[in-house]
């Protein structure tokens, strides 16, 4: 498996260069389905989390990460393929739901799955309101959600920068949020909203970001 080849090589190298501070890895269950829900600051977040998590984590990744050209495109394609990421065309709502269905299958099969409830990366550093896909996955699978807070990843490769830089990076894995039995009898829409808000509150408490009580809107004219 490509992940098993890349991870032992890339992790020590990346750790030596960026020396990330990693907190709370004991909060990530080592077996069984689990959802890692993180804030989203940079393209490299989907590299940082798999490198620092104590087990393999797959992500939904925008289709462009699999179709890039040049050296960066090759590295992106090989990494996301290697960690088992699922490509999604963000301009097609039906494809997005199909990707969530694939993610659900992955979780129900005992895998760890990473998701960004904000939907797209924050360009002003604030934490935006979460979309309810994370709660849908948790409630459908019955699996716990581990909130994840990233800081400093936006400085590794700022918007417009072609090459990565050294930056102070911190990754914190919070306590699992259990869902089993907690929302019995609660209308589905309300349950999804309440659980999503709980996840975002946990991320906010760890990241220290300013809260933006609105949805983050993707800017299609910019990468990421």
Automatic annotation (TrEMBL):
InterPro entries: Plipid/glycerol_acylTrfase (IPR002123)
Keyword Transferase listed: yes
CDD domains recorded: LPLAT_AGPAT-like
Name of one Pfam family that matches: Acyltransferase
Keyword tags: Acyltransferase, Transferase
Signal peptide start-end: none
GO function term, MF aspect, one: acyltransferase activity
Domain Phospholipid/glycerol acyltransferase: 34-153
Cross-referenced PANTHER family: 1-ACYL-SN-GLYCEROL-3-PHOSPHATE ACYLTRANSFERASE
Name of the protein in question: 1-acyl-sn-glycerol-3-phosphate acyltransferase
């Amino acid at each position: 498996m490509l992940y098993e080849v890349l991870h032992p090589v890339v992790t020590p190298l990346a750790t030596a260069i960026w020396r990330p501070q990693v907190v709370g890895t004991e909060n990530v269950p080592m077996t069984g389905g689990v959802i890692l829900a993180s804030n989203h600051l940079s393209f490299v977040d989907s590299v940082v989390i798999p490198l620092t998590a104590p087990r393999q984590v797959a992500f939904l990744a925008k289709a462009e990460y699999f179709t890039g050209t040049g050296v960066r495109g090759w590295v992106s394609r090989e990494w996301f393929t290697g960690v088992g990421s699922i490509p999604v065309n963000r301009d097609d709502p039906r494809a997005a739901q199909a990707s969530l269905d694939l993610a659900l299958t992955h979780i129900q099969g005992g895998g760890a799955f990473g998701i960004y409830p904000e939907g797209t990366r924050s360009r002003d550093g604030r934490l935006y309101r979460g979309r309810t896909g994370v709660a849908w996955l948790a409630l459908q699978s019955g699996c716990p959600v581990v909130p994840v807070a990233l800081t400093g990843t936006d400085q590794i490769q700022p918007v417009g920068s072609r090459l990565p830089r050294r930056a102070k990076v911190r990754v914190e894995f919070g306590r699992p949020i259990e869902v089993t039995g907690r929302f019995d009898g609660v209308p589905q829409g309300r349950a999804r909203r309440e659980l999503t808000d709980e996840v975002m509150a946990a991320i906010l408490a760890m990241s220290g970001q300013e809260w933006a009580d609105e949805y983050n809107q993707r800017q299609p004219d910019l990468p990421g």
